[in-house]
Design goal:
Strand content: 15-25%
Largest sheet: 5 strands, mixed
Helix content: 40-55%
Radius of gyration: 25 Å
Distance between the termini: 21 Å
Number of strands: 7
Number of helices: 16
Order of helices and strands: HHHEEHHHEEEHEHEHHHHHHHH
Length: 395
């Protein structure tokens, strides 16, 4: 981490009119991702992919400025110098080796500042990328970071070009083709305050897939309107199918009414696993707080049972203890029993992956902190960027 540099960068950003950058955001992000079992530096993870995207976008924007015209803009071209393809170059970054396609000019006069010639090491870029996402890609922040970390005097105009190219590439990423099969997909919605004329709570639908190689990958994020609903999920999950997802073995989700039917409509063979944490939390809503310790203790015996038959035995005891006092709580479990038990057929190592959507849900507290500091997100794109940053390494 480059804490001292980020402090200086934050100050420079304020002078440039941008938002300040708090290095603690980056540090907390990385630690949180690691706690949730998210790969930060996988070969196909977001951090490495976006590092490549931003570096290449910056290099191409620099060459545009050097030549005086953008790629493909023949009307703006003047002089004899022009683009001359690319050369491959591997640079070492904080997230591992990144293979870059470095643009060239025909006369060989292009001298990039972001990744200098012969440089094989690019330090500090993980903090930069995280801050760019978390702070909404403001030109002031980008300019300050590039100046502070790379000693690169980059103009506001060039910074804006870099930003535009990165946003365009990120939009392409969000519509990228997906794998044909995912063993497990976790889905949940976060609720954040977004200004759309007026400030209102809006759901952000998130789907995280676990690939056949065991890595986590954020498959999609969509900002919804109104409240979270099965119809909204059906529309967004259809996007995954349209992008190539033909089969899912297990979909872990909360107990939203109609959601299992929406999943089955798209992937009839998929097992639906209700999030145990959601189910326990919903159960407690029917009970007095003074009974919560006793109830959660008995519920734990159910969802940690070694087999489905053993869980049936524990559930029978639970019903005998609580059905007369809290019939609605017991009815909740009976209604959802078939969607609760699938994970019990798997060994403990796999149960930890599929029994809860907490990898997504835990972001709620982080977003509450963010919205308390800023009040709300100014638009959908800012909310998605901040959300994306918390999943760095898997998206």
């Amino acid at each position: 981490m480059v804490a001292n540099k980020d402090v200086a960068s934050a100050s420079a950003a304020e002078q440039a009119g941008g938002d300040g950058v708090d290095v603690r955001v980056a540090q907390e992000l990385i630690e949180k991702a690691r706690e949730d079992g998210v790969s930060l530096v996988g070969p196909n993870g977001l951090l490495r992919q976006v590092t490549k995207t931003v570096l290449e976008s910056a290099l191409n924007a620099e060459l545009d400025e050097h030549l005086g015209y953008e790629k493909g803009d023949l009307q703006g071209k003047f002089g004899s110098n022009e683009r001359n393809g690319t050369s491959s170059k591997t640079v070492r970054t904080d997230v591992g080796e990144v293979l870059l396609d470095v643009p060239r000019d025909r006369e060989g006069t292009f001298t990039p500042q972001i990744v200098p010639k012969y440089a094989r090491r690019v330090d500090g870029f993980d903090d930069t990328i995280i801050s760019l996402y978390a702070k909404g890609l403001t030109t002031g922040v980008i300019q300050a970071h590039l100046s502070d970390i790379y000693d690169a005097d980059v103009s506001r105009d060039l910074t804006s070009k870099i930003t535009d190219k990165v946003v365009e590439d990120l939009n392409s990423w969000q519509s990228r083709p997906l794998d044909r099969v995912y063993p497990v997909v976790l889905i949940d919605a976060l609720h954040v305050k977004i200004r759309d004329g007026a400030v209102a709570n809006r759901p952000i639908y998130i789907a995280v897939g676990i690939t056949l190689s065991g890595e986590r990958d954020v498959l999609g994020m969509w900002v919804g309107t109104g409240s979270e609903g099965a119809k909204g999920w059906l529309n967004h999950l259809s996007d995954l199918k349209n992008r190539g997802v033909e089969d899912i073995l297990i979909v872990a989700c909360d107990g939203l009414k109609g959601l299992p039917d929406a999943i089955s409509a798209l992937w009839p063979q998929a097992e639906v696993q209700l999030c145990v944490v959601h189910l326990v939390r919903a159960s407690l809503r029917y009970a007095s707080k003074k009974y919560w310790p006793a109830i959660t203790k008995q519920l734990k015996l159910i969802y940690t049972s070694p087999t489905v038959d053993a869980a049936d035995v524990e559930f029978t005891s639970f019903c005998a203890e609580w059905e007369d006092r809290y019939p609605a709580m017991v009815r909740l479990w009976r209604t959802n029993w078939e969607q609760f038990i699938p994970f019990l057929s798997y060994p403990p190592e796999l149960r930890k992956i599929i029994y809860t959507t907490n990898a997504i849900e835990s972001l709620n507290s982080r977003f509450r902190q963010a919205t308390r500091r800023r009040g709300h997100f100014p638009n959908e794109q800012a909310a998605l960027r901040a959300c994306l940053s918390w999943f760095v390494g898997v998206v």
